[in-house]
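Write out the 3D structure for:
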Amino acid sequence: MQAMSRENAGSNMHALIRELYPICRSITGGGVRETLRILREHVPLEIREVATGTQVFDWTVPREWNIRDAWIKNSAGERLVDFRRLNLHVVNYSAPIRQRMRLAELKEHLHTVPHQPDWVPYRTSYYKESWGFCLSEKQLAQFNDTDEYDVCVDSSLTDGQLSYGEYLLKGKEAENEVLISCHICHPALANDNLSGVAVTIALAQHLASTPRRYSYRFLFIPGTIGSITWLSKNEQAAKKIRHGLVLTCVGDSGNITYKRSRRGDAEIDRAFVHILEQSGEPHKIVEFSPYGYDERQYCSPGFNLPVGTMMRSPHGEFAQYHTSADNLDFVQAEALADSLAKCRDVIDVLEHNRSYINLNPYCEPQLGKRGLYEGSQDETMALLWVLNLSDGNFSLLDIAERAKMPFAAIKVAADRLGRAGLLRDV
């Protein structure tokens, strides 16, 4: 991305995060549908719905949760905890309750971040019916043992739908797809949730405007149950996935972290490692583990799809994770733009990684008489590497890795040699 377009891209992604941030999302419900409707204004999403009770492998689509209001009031009628001020204040998926109780009873349902007195934690209860409130330590200090508190969670758990968004962008190779997946189920968490959504939208918009070898399938899903549901309903479509990426926590100022697929040496893994190493910027490559985001469903042994995960600061490794401090100030436009740029660079590798045959394989062809010996030392070396390894057994990424040169330089060399009649695609 050019400097100005990179700045604009970062600003646009941050603006989308600001728009989505106030919506109370969960794994089901009106907040998810509202989010998908907004995203559909940016890319032509198909919104899918799967009914409560549907069996999806070993799981069952849960009842739909919606919430209107929630509070804890003291005896004077003052709201000490107010869902309308911050939707993290209610344990996500809390069952409805209206009751008066003393602090001793209420405390069993209260959650704080003891070492950060101003922060409110994010807690859920998706698959075990209960209720609760999240608050700061400073708010908790306003409670006392003598008062009686009015507790209300005005919510509903009813048969309904699990909703997710899907966008298929077709390329020349309709049977070969790249999967880009992000989760949309967290309320008021800007990095762990919305940064991935914003970068995925920007990536879809970019790819829609460029020629494509592969087809691209974008999924905007509730975490875990969403990917399980999609895989359950799309076992045949999943067989088309040649490369895949989960995007999450990509808006903070940390260095980029890439988590390999279960395969460990899939082309998406190699492309990411190559791009990050060639960037010269600090980064981290971590091995696959069956804990994290939806990559663990895509990489489950029955599917074993080549799906990696890109993050900046990994989940659980930044203090703000799953707290109210993961807010609009925590994500940065420049970090979002850099994450998008790295994704575009990796996709450029995937799109153009091919194997070639040297049409003049007996000794080194004379480059000078073909006007190919006029560039820099690096450009000449790229030409020589491509010529030497283009026997049909090495891809351009293989060559770039072995030559320790940027993929883009190797691709340019292959293009030049092709135009000179020295190379053809396998």
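The CA atoms of residues 256 and 312 lie 4 Å apart.
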